[in-house]
């Protein structure tokens, strides 16, 4: 392990990781829980996200206002997020304020009141957040892609939950959820910046050693990615086209090939899709490729927002580029350009203590160890043209993916033909509670 990186596991299983960066003046800290929206039962859908909000709503020592004021008083930046597989409560402060940050975050995490009155205040906020999703077509299009791609599996649900669950949950529900899922073996605390590991342990260990074991999450099961065409009609200005193809788990040995593949296809301004669809033809303002990995599966995808009159032309061009990946070798120039772009992003991200904190925790969750940046750069250098072609031909083979359309379009069958997909289905444009 890097001498600047240390790990200590407390007696109850809580893991504390630090990465020392002596030349900076900041420290970033995250309390991570290896539990996310995919671990919820159908009746619990939305609990992880609601609980994340409630952690900022007051503890036995501080009110919600006092928590906010405490962070503001030290110039701190604090937030939280919930994903399908993890939940994180994080902050970033000047190194001199490390003890205060630790005290506040630990207090929030360990002593949250989950007060019934605060739940009533926050309930309409979450419902507004659910409503906002459908008011942002690009974001909603991605949600629909995941919904149709993963079907009834929890990965197909919204992290925000359902209005029914949000309206019915109680303080007791969230308290039980915390005790059940937030068990010590699933808690990782990561810090990066100008710090000393022993000092961090002195600050954190007394508080987190008292965290009691819980039931923990159930074993996760792997879904199959659905295929076909799904059209959700809405009276909006653009057609939002999303394509999803079988991808790789976040730990897969070929994940670096997938990263370079999406970069070449549509990851930057010199990529094939950006040049062909935006620069040469002006068909879209936003067009890109992406790769999303989970612990056991993943999805490679493409997004384009286009005018209704050009959706079929755009679909043809996208399909043509997918076919070209399998027939025309990726040039040495393209590969080296994608390699340099990827390595540059990795190295630039290392200059931010928050990014370092996130990477430290994610490596522990997914790989159980610290991964030096040099190892990652070596893996990027090892990607070959052949590995990219093999991956592209596997993921984007005919009738092997799902296309989701959001907008004023009823051309499910014709779009299926453009992509070589035989199964098409049109869905109602009605909003559902």
Automatic annotation (TrEMBL):
InterPro entries: Metalloenz_LuxS/M16, MPP/UQCRC_Complex, Pept_M16_N, Pept_M16_Zn_BS, Peptidase_M16_C. This is Insulinase family protein. Gene3D superfamilies: Metalloenzyme, LuxS/M16 peptidase-like. Residues 168-340 form the Peptidase M16 C-terminal domain. PANTHER family: METALLOPROTEASE (PTHR11851), MITOCHONDRIAL-PROCESSING PEPTIDASE SUBUNIT ALPHA (PTHR11851:SF49). Pfam families: Peptidase_M16 (PF00675), Peptidase_M16_C (PF05193). Belongs to the peptidase M16 family. Residues 15-162 form the Peptidase M16 N-terminal domain. Its cofactor is Zn(2+).
């Amino acid at each position: 392990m890097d001498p600047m990186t240390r790990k200590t596991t407390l007696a109850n299983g809580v893991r504390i990781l630090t990465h020392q960066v002596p030349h900076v003046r900041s420290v970033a800290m995250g309390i991570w829980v290896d539990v996310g929206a995919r671990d919820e039962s159908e009746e619990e859908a939305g609990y992880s996200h609601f609980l994340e909000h409630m952690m900022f709503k007051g503890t036995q020592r501080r009110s919600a206002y006092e928590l906010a004021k405490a962070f503001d008083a030290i110039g701190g930046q604090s937030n939280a997020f919930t994903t399908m597989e993890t939940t994180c409560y994080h902050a970033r402060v000047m190194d001199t304020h490390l003890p205060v940050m630790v005290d506040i975050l630990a207090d929030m995490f360990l002593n949250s009141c989950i007060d019934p009155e605060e739940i009533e205040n926050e309930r309409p906020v979450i419902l507004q957040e659910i409503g906002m999703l459908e008011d942002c077509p690009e974001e909603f299009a991605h949600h629909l892609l995941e919904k149709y791609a993963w079907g009834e599996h929890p990965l197909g649900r919204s992290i925000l939950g359902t209005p029914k669950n949000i309206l019915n949950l109680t303080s007791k529900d969230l308290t039980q959820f915390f005790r059940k899922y937030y068990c010590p073996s699933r808690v990782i605390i990561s810090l990066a910046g100008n710090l000393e590991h022993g000092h961090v342990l002195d600050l954190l260990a007394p508080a987190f050693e008292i965290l009691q074991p819980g039931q923990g999450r159930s074993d996760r099961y792997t879904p199959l990615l659905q295929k076909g065409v799904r059209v959700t009609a809405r009276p909006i200005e653009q057609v939002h086209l999303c394509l999803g193809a079988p991808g790789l788990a976040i730990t897969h040995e070929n994940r670096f090939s997938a990263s370079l593949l999406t970069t070449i296809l549509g990851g930057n301004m010199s990529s094939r899709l950006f040049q062909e669809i935006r620069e040469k033809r002006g068909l879209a303002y936003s067009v890109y490729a992406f790769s999303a990995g989970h612990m056991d599966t993943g999805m490679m995808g493409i997004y384009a927002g286009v005018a209704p009159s050009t959706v079929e032309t755009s679909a043809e061009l996208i399909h043509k580029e997918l076919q070209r990946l399998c027939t025309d070798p990726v040039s040495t120039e393209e590969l080296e350009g994608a390699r340099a772009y990827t390595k540059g992003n990795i190295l630039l991200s290392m200059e931010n203590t928050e990014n370092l904190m996130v990477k430290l925790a994610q490596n522990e969750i997914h790989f159980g160890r610290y991964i030096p940046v040099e190892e990652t750069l070596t893996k990027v250098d090892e990607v070959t043209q052949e590995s990219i072609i093999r991956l592209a031909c596997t993921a984007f083979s005919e009738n092997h993916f799902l296309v989701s359309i959001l907008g004023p379009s009823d051309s499910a069958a014709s779009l299926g033909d453009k992509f070589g997909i035989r199964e098409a289905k049109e869905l109602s444009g009605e909003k559902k509670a």
